[in-house]
Amino acid sequence: QLPTGLYKKVLVILHDSVLPYMNEPTLMMDFLTVAYGIGGAISLLALNGLFILIHQHNLEYPDFYKKLYSLLDPSIYHVKYRARFFHLTDLFLSSSHLPAYLVAAFIKRLSRLALTAPPESLLMIIPFICNLFRRHPACKVLVHRPGGPGEMSEDPYVMEEEEPSESRALESSLWEIQSLQNHYHPDVAKAAAVLNQSLSEIEDDISGLLELSAYELFDKEVKKKVIDVPLEFEQVRGLFGKKNDIFAEHFSLD
After folding, report:
1. Where are the bilayer-spanning segments (predicted)?
2. How far apart are CA 68 and CA 84, in angstroms?
3. Mean pLDDT within 89-111
């Protein structure tokens, strides 16, 4: 057992400053799997090391995707390590051999959590979800379900279910993204509207969006060129602007 602060310091550097220099990186399997099971930020940071062991040293982790699914909570769009987490999640969900129910569960959970996410996170997660649809066409039923969300009396998706296979995500519809098409931020609404059209086969590059901050969004809006919009208005007459105003007979704006 290590203090939380020490866990974080070790896990931040483990994947690039420790594992590459070990003769037997597999010795870290137990440490990383235990850290991955702790939850919160520690689990997020353990992902880097686990990815190396799974990808390069044939580590088998039966409940890996179940645990990854459980890490998706409202805080995931606000944490300091958001960019690292979504970069690795993108890698873990890149395999075309993953079952459709699993990917659909991730899409649905990310979409549900997006309803309360800040704009800078939404501009990253919507292209992320679109890429998942491109890799796994079987999940497009969430977008093109006959009748759509308008004819569903209730959403069959079970948000509280910890097991992705039991979440009933494939029976649901992606009404959350449809809701985001009315988002107050125009860029978010525009990004969400992409799902109304046929997706291109080329994946969106989300690498530049992973670390997008609220400051950058605000700075971009401030630097936009203001376009003069012609307005049609009724010229003021009299003191209070009314047509048949008694004051207009006695007072003038000249």
Report:
1. 31-54, 85-107
2. 14
3. 89
109 CB contacts (<8 Å, ≥6 apart)? 69, 72, 159, 167, 169
Is the pTM higher than 0.70? The answer reads yes
Record the tokens describing residue 99, joined without a space: 């079952």
Cα separation of the two ends of the chain: 83
Residue 40 lies in a domain: no
Fill in the amino acid letter for 121.
S
The reply to whether 56 falls in a domain is no
Token output for 124: 């990253």
pLDDT tens for residues 24-35? Answer: 888 888 888 888
Q: Which domain holds residue 186?
A: 99-224
At residue 90's C-alpha, the angle toward residues 84 and 91, to 5°, is 95
Tokens 């049609």 identify what position?
A: 232
The pLDDT tens digits of the residues spanning 181-219 come to 999 998 999 999 988 888 888 888 888 888 888 888 888
* Residue written as token pair 């003021």: 236
Q: Identify which of 44-58, 70-84, 102-116 has the greatest average pLDDT.
A: 102-116
What is d(CA 109, CA 66) in angstroms, rounded to the nearest whole number? 13
For 20-88, the DSSP string reads GG-S-GGGGHHHHHHHHHH-HHHHHHHHHHHHHHHHHH----TTHHHHHHHT-SGGGGTSTTHHHHHHH
Q: What is the count of structural domains for the chain? A: 1
Does 231 fall in a domain? no
Name the percent of the chain in helix, strand, coil, to the closest 5. Answer: 60, 0, 40
* 19 located within any domain: no
Kindly state the greatest CA–CA separation across the chain.
Answer: 97
Q: What is the pLDDT of residue 190?
A: 92
